[in-house]
UniProtKB/TrEMBL annotation:
Source taxon at top rank: Bacteria
Sequence ranges assigned to domain Ferritin/DPS in this UniProt record: 30-167
Cited InterPro entries: DPS_DNA-bd, DPS_DNA-bd_CS, Ferritin-like, Ferritin-like_SF, Ferritin_DPS_dom
Protein name per UniProt: Dps family protein
Family matches, as CDD domains: DPS
Pfam families the UniProt entry points to: Ferritin (PF00210)
Transmembrane segments: none
Gene Ontology MF term list: ferric iron binding; oxidoreductase activity, acting on metal ions
Annotated source species: Synechococcus elongatus PCC 11801
Length: 168
């Protein structure tokens, strides 16, 4: 057995996946915004799950739980894609606050206001994902394009389902 090198840092291999460093950085920056939006929406949805009241309590409590569980899985997928591109994923409240486009809720809104805010949040995530497509397409980054397509499909469906609760 060879000696372990003490005090020496292991050499890091450069990321060589056929996408330039500049494009990978731009994509990682966009994915960081998507991660921040997704995590912020997760927190908001979880908060509403805990605090919803009224005649639709059971329906909304379960719907919000389904949606926040899906969001919790999504943040991992997005962060792992950022890492696969060779960049650190943001992971703090302060970083997310700087990157997100989703507004926090003030106080405890009514059930109807919760639904409205979550529709806006779901659609905001869709817009954040959609805005990243030009650079992803130009870089031929199919794995990120696939991730974005899946995220958009889920958020568009969630927005539709939430909006349907508001129609009479």
């Amino acid at each position: 057995m060879g000696k372990k090198s003490e005090g020496k840092k292991a050499a890091t291999l450069p990321v060589d996946i056929g996408i330039s460093n500049d494009d990978r950085q731009a994509i990682a920056n966009g994915l960081s915004r998507l991660l921040a939006d997704t995590y912020t929406l997760y927190l908001k949805t979880h908060n509403f799950h805990w605090n919803v009241t009224g005649p639709m309590f059971q329906t909304l409590h379960l719907l919000f739980e389904t949606q926040y569980n899906e969001l919790a899985l999504a943040v991992d997928l997005i962060a792992e894609r950022i890492r696969a591109l060779g960049f650190p994923a943001p992971g703090s409240y302060s970083a997310y606050a700087k990157l997100t486009s989703i507004e926090e809720a003030d106080g405890i809104p009514s059930a109807t206001e919760m639904i409205q805010q979550l529709v806006i949040g779901q659609e905001t995530v869709v817009r954040t994902a959609r805005a990243l497509f030009p650079i992803v397409d130009a870089a031929s980054d199919e794995p990120t394009a696939d991730l974005l397509t899946q995220r958009m499909q889920i958020h568009e469906k969630n927005a539709w389902m939430l909006r349907s609760l508001l129609e009479s």
